[in-house]
Amino acid sequence: MLPFTSIGEAEAALGRNLTAVEAVWFQYSSGMHDFCLYAHNIVFLLLVYSVAPLPVALAELKRPKAIHKYKLQPKVHVPVADVLKCYKNVVKTFLFAVGPLQLVSFPTIKWVGIRTGLPLPSVWEAAAQLAVYFVVEDYFNYWLHRALHSRWGYDHIHRVHHEFSAPVGFAAPYAHWAEVLILGFPAFLGPAIAPCHILVFWLWFVLRHVEAIETHCGYDFPQTPTKYIPFYGGAEYHDYHHYVGGRSHSNFASVFTYCDYIYGTDKGYRYQKGQLAKQLTEQEKAKNQNGETNGMWEKYD
Q1: Between the CA of residue 221 and those of 56, 61, 155, 214, 295, what are the distances in Å?
Q2: Three state DSSP letters for 217-276
Q3: Which of 105, 99, 107, 112 is nearest to 45 (CA)?
Q4: What is the pLDDT of residues 34-91, one digit of tens each?
Q5: How many angstroms separate the CA atoms of 262 and 244, rounded?
Q6: CA-CA-CA-CA torsion for 28, 34, 111, 124, nearest 10 degrees?
Q7: Is the Cβ–Cβ distance between 159 and 246 less than 8 Å?
Q8: Rounded distance, CA 206 to CA 141, Å?
Q9: What are the tens digits of pLDDT across the range 3-40?
Q10: Span 218-239, mean pLDDT?
């Protein structure tokens, strides 16, 4: 809760005028308890999960020929009924597992130093914090994800996520409730190491959620902005992990590719890519352009 009763009082305490964004934040958060602000996070997660996968999902329904050549596993079609079932299961997990955990963790968030007051962070400060969060989350997620591919971890927990051998955006957070909590830990670790403002905290979880949806969308669109991010994995990279399924010991990374490269867990992926490049003839390329494709991985069954 802001310790100021008016904008004038806030400006006097800061020794300057509030920026336009700070004024909006004051109007919105003044008098609101920090617990209520923190609880916004679950609302944002539900909203992003409901909206972000829609463009690709609707495009797949309405314009299959226009985007078919970009589909990574074109022989697999996930029925709408399965997508709706997936959506309901994920919402239940958010409401009955993620939501309560986030609310119970409020004292920890306050303890590590997540703040809600003024001044707001600069754009560069927020960008630096987000960069730290992505790197920290990616590294620890790699090892936890790899552990979930052990025999016990896969059979008892992680197999649920791999029910979608050809992932779709709505299946990004589809998993056993225990996996959602386990892989949620690295997401909180970054803000614990480098505490931020609650606005950056919200933005971090929104961006990470959008990234996961993009990675699971099942399409490799050539103009995706994330292709310009160094060491970024993307949809094709993670799609291979799902295609191989329970046998997969490759492409464990959640965002970047450096851990897989350093620890040698991308060898299968790189080998298959190399083989594909050798076997792809000019005739096959022409078929791909016309939407008649076998996909990235089918020929290796």
Answers
A1: 10, 17, 33, 10, 13
A2: CCECCCCCHHHHCCCECHHHHHHHHHHHHHHCCCCCCCCECHHHHHCCCCHHHHHHHHHH
A3: 99
A4: 999 999 999 999 999 999 999 999 998 887 888 888 999 999 989 999 999 999 999 9
A5: 21
A6: -10
A7: yes
A8: 17
A9: 888 899 999 999 999 999 999 999 999 889 999 999 99
A10: 93
A 10 A CB-CB count for 26 gives 20
Question: How far is the C-alpha of 28 from the C-alpha of 199, rounded, in Å?
Answer: 12
Say what the pTM is: 0.91
Q: Is the pLDDT of residue 300 over 50?
A: no
Tokens of 104: 């119970």
Q: Tell me which amino acid residue 252 is.
A: F
Distances (CA, A) of 29 to 12, 48, 102, 198, 259: 18, 22, 19, 11, 40
CA distance to 15, 81, 108, per residue, from 112 (Å):
27, 43, 6
Q: pLDDT by residue (tens digit) across 124-148? A: 999 999 999 999 999 999 999 999 9
Let me know: does 38 contact 261? Beta carbons within 8 Å. no
What phi, psi does 71 have (nearest 5°)? -70, 130
- Tokens matching residue 301: 């069954």
Map tokens 């897989």 to a residue: 260
